[in-house]
Amino acid sequence: MNLYPVFLDLKDRAVLVVGGGEVAERKAEMLLSAGARLSVGAPDLTPVLTAWRDEGRIRHLDGSFAADWLDDAWLVIAATDDGELNQRIAALGEARRIWVNVVDNAGLSGFQVPAVIDRSPVQIAISSAGIAPMLARRLREQIETLFDHSLGTLAQLLQRHRNAIRQAYPQLGPRRTFYSWLLDSPIANLVRQSRPEAAEAALRQALAEPDAFAPKGKVSLVGAGPGDPGLLTLKALRALNEADVILYDRLVSPDILAMARRDAHRIDVGKHPGQNHRQTQLHIHEQMIEYAQQGLHVVRLKGGDAFIFGRGGEELQHLKAHGVPYCVIPGITAALACAAYSGIPLTHREHAQSVHLITAHTKGSAAEPDWAALSRSSQTLVFYMGVSQLDLIRSRLQDHGHDASTPCALIEQGSMPHQRTLIGTLDTMPVLARQHNIAAPALLIVGDVAQLGEELHWYGQLLDTATVPAAHPPAQA
């Protein structure tokens, strides 16, 4: 171990930064956040440093470096572009037993500034001993995804109740067990939900009733996004890495499942053609309850976003009725992803001031959409699950005033490597879709913005509508 890792308390301690440029500004910002009494020495300052000086946040030592700048400093950072000056500062600091860091020069530095993951009061620091700063930053980016921002709030809660925890669990073994449980407990879940009073009450109850902290199951309703694993949210990734059981839908890509915890029990609960979808949904409800009541963390993984035509509300109602704790992690819904990956803005100042998300499938005998309202100008219509309903959608919209030449785009396998985008008009789209064998999953966009797809397309294949293709097998759903 060639460096000794340490965290310094710099609150109200004098710290010096020599240099007034952008690098000095970045160092100063971090030192101010740590509560240092900061002086910045340089002839000129960046606008931000100048503002901080005027606000009294830093003291400006104007002019060229002088040795007496070090007189009361506990810590010094040399951030100038003058190599000889940086070397002089390092030597003076060494002689005075002051810790000096010379930016981008490990050989002259008595300490290294690490890459930091800040969940104050919890902090994680990563150092490459100044040899490969980019490696440290890359590791920080990867580790950053593992820790929710609520971790700091949870730590503050534990700090407030530290004495009570020690009194309730005076022996180290049971106390360690309690802390281990707490990090994945309903208390931590309440903190993540920004319910501090409920979390505080739950912690008090756990301390008053030791038996209350027996493991309890929960369900995380997670949106997996449109398919591209790069669009998975950080919270969704954390949930996948914490899951004991994953109940996933048919449209969740294998690449996303591969990012889950290796020993998680994966169960395909997708609805397939020919099945009784109502019975399948009831079975999903039963499985969520069954596994959660075993004390397990269940991730209900749904394509897109669970609250956009994903029956997420129905599933939460069932969990609520059975007293099972739950949380919701939104996903990027297909309308946003497919449009973005096709270069089609859903809103545009010249073309559309509102967006309607519509499902082509309704429950039982539910009323059809309000076609008259959908036929007003300056709006974009996005139809989910509409490939098999293209003729109906065309006729309904034209019957209610939509022009036959209204631009349309049909996006198949949106955000996936085999994405295909077909651009036509309301009148021609059903025929074009059949000619190009467009198959589900595909999304239909109706409105003037659709024509921008020809100009702004950037991902996947933009189909040529001028020629009829030879037999082209439909993409797999």
From TrEMBL:
List, alphabetically, the InterPro entries matched: 4pyrrol_Mease (IPR000878), 4pyrrol_Methylase_sf (IPR035996), 4pyrrole_Mease_sub1 (IPR014777), 4pyrrole_Mease_sub2 (IPR014776), CobA/CysG_C (IPR006366), NAD(P)-bd_dom_sf (IPR036291), Siro_Cobalamin_biosynth (IPR050161), Sirohaem_synt_dimer_dom_sf (IPR037115)
- Where NAD(+) binds, per the record, is at E22, V23, P43, D44
Question: So where's the catalytic machinery, residue-wise?
Answer: D249, K271
Domain spans labelled Siroheme synthase central = 119-144
Show the segment(s) annotated as Precorrin-2 dehydrogenase / sirohydrochlorin ferrochelatase.
1-203
Tell me the keywords, alphabetical order.
Answer: Cobalamin biosynthesis, Lyase, Methyltransferase, Multifunctional enzyme, NAD, Oxidoreductase, Phosphoprotein, Porphyrin biosynthesis, S-adenosyl-L-methionine, Transferase
Which HAMAP family does the record match to this protein? Siroheme_synth (MF_01646)
Q: What does this protein do?
A: Then it catalyzes the NAD-dependent ring dehydrogenation of precorrin-2 to yield sirohydrochlorin. Finally, it catalyzes the ferrochelation of sirohydrochlorin to yield siroheme.
Q: What is this protein called?
A: Siroheme synthase
